[in-house]
Amino acid sequence: MTGVEYVLIKDGKVDAFKIHGAQAMGGPPMTENTLFRVRSMSKPITGVAMMKLYEEGKWKLDDPVTKYVPEFANLKVLIEDPVTKTSKVVNVDRPPTMQEVFTHTAGFGYGLSAATEVDRMFIADNPMGKKDMKAMIDRVAAIPLLAQPGSKWSYSIAIDVQGAIVERLSGMKFGDYLKKTIFTPLDMKDSGFWLQEKDRPHFAEVITRNNDSGKMIDYPDAPDRDFFKPDHEESGGGGLVSTTHDYARFVEMLINRGELDGHPRAQARDSRPDVHQPPRPGPQGHGRRRLGPRRLAFGSDLGSLAAAGGHVLVVRHRRHLVLGG
Predict the structure, then answer these.
(1) pTM for the complete prediction?
(2) Would you kindly state where each structural domain of the chain is located, as residue ranges?
(3) Over the stretch 41-66, which tens digit does the pLDDT of each residue have?
(4) C-alpha–C-alpha distance, residues 44 and 38, integer Å
(5) Alpha helices, DSSP H only, in 171-237?
(6) 157 near 109, Cβ under 8 Å?
(7) Are 284 and 14 in contact (CB under 8 A)?
(8) C-alpha pair distances (Å), 76 with each of 64, 138, 145, 235
(9) Per CATH, which fold does 3-56+173-324 belong to?
């Protein structure tokens, strides 16, 4: 990587906010305004959106996912025999439940590697590159599951499916719902799915090693995942962009069970038993960016999170929070 920044929050206050290096090879230095692809750290934000709808009574853990995604009514399962190297497609025993969609046990593939025939189908025709949520759902419905629902854990496209469910339950585009219910209340002004040209100078590049030359080179986004072209689905599993400042606010809100700076909660009802410690004050500002008073209706707690892609790392130990980009 060409640069790194991290924030250390203790007892709700910023103890350190350090920035090192550049946004790209030979590029401008990283700043507090640097925008990162947060990759799979989009997933906790999607989870909060789903839990807000859960608190409103819009869905239940034991509901079949087909209640909200009828396109999954005829899902199949691809059974591979590693000995004979053959495979067969069978019907699902039952539809996945919402709980299984939440816990990566619904049976969906993802395409992060080509290890299975199902994942190779994801790679060949990427559902996350489709023009909208409906097209993404239609493509996922056409790809067999890796296993019968509830029988196996497999990191999957299920969080993107949750984004589509948020749209259907809220009646809003997914990104608009996140902005209204999470980003605006938490003053996360630099978080979202899409960027404008004015944001390009602040967008950190991704680099990789060229296997032939051994040199580090830019690793461009896929054409169907361009953050500057809103022509594909808003990926709840890995499509968000944010800053260290913004994501620190989000994580501290989680630690405080839906509050920031001690403001009273405004949620419809608790989604979990009240067994947590009292909320602490939210993190106070660094430099010109003040982490000011906000609140969000969500009753949860955070142990630790780690992101894929090397862009965001969140570690909480007791009353300390470390966030790195």
Answers:
(1) 0.83
(2) 3-56+173-324, 65-156
(3) 999 999 999 999 999 999 999 999 99
(4) 11
(5) 174-178
(6) yes
(7) yes
(8) 15, 13, 6, 24
(9) Beta-lactamase (3.40.710)
